[in-house]
Amino acid sequence: MAARNRAPVLDWQKFTERGEPVAHVVVHHLRPGFVQPMHAHRFAEVFWCQTGGCNHMVNGQSMRFSEGTLVMLRPSDTHELRAGPDEECVYSLGSFPRAVYDRMRRLYEPDDPGFWGGRDPMPRTLTLTPGQREWFDAAFRGLARAPQDRLALDRFLLNLVY
Asked: How many angstroms separate the CA atoms of 79 and 57, rounded?
């Protein structure tokens, strides 16, 4: 737990420098040897590996983040991504404010105690089937093109957890 206390914490308003009010959607490319240092957030994230892979250290545990892996990161999680010297990783990342995450938990966690990872020490992590990958990629691109409003984000998140 000590590592969590020392990790920088990203704030939503500072993280979304462009002032996006609802969601921040981006594709990242980790080049060989690149390290995205340990950090925490005051918002939630969902990200999935499109190609390649890297090591994902989350809440003190190391796991492989590879093609088809989807991670639903909670505001309480601390993590880093580390590409090996001979590996690259391309992943899609969607972030949204804690208020949206909290509202969704209030609405849906009573019916699904594992919603977005629930109280488990690790965030919900899935290996997507080819069909799910195709859906997620299309939904993610749709969210990136959608107007910055709660309806677009809620539609994406509800379809994701459903």
From this structure: 5
CB 72 within 8 A of CB 93: no
pLDDT at 11: 56
- Burial class of residue 134 (count of CB atoms within 10 Å of its CB; 0-12, 13-18, 19+): exposed
DSSP strands (E only) in the chain: 9-10, 24-30, 35-41, 43-58, 61-66, 69-73, 78-82, 89-97, 124-127
Block residue for tokens 């580390």: 82
Q: Structure pTM?
A: 0.84
Residue 162: band (very low, low, confident or very high) from pLDDT cuts 50, 70, 90 = confident
- In the block, tokens 């290996």 appear at 127
Contact criterion met (CB below 8 Å) for 13 and 42? no
Task: List helix spans (H) across the chain.
Answer: 2-6, 12-15, 98-108, 130-145, 150-161
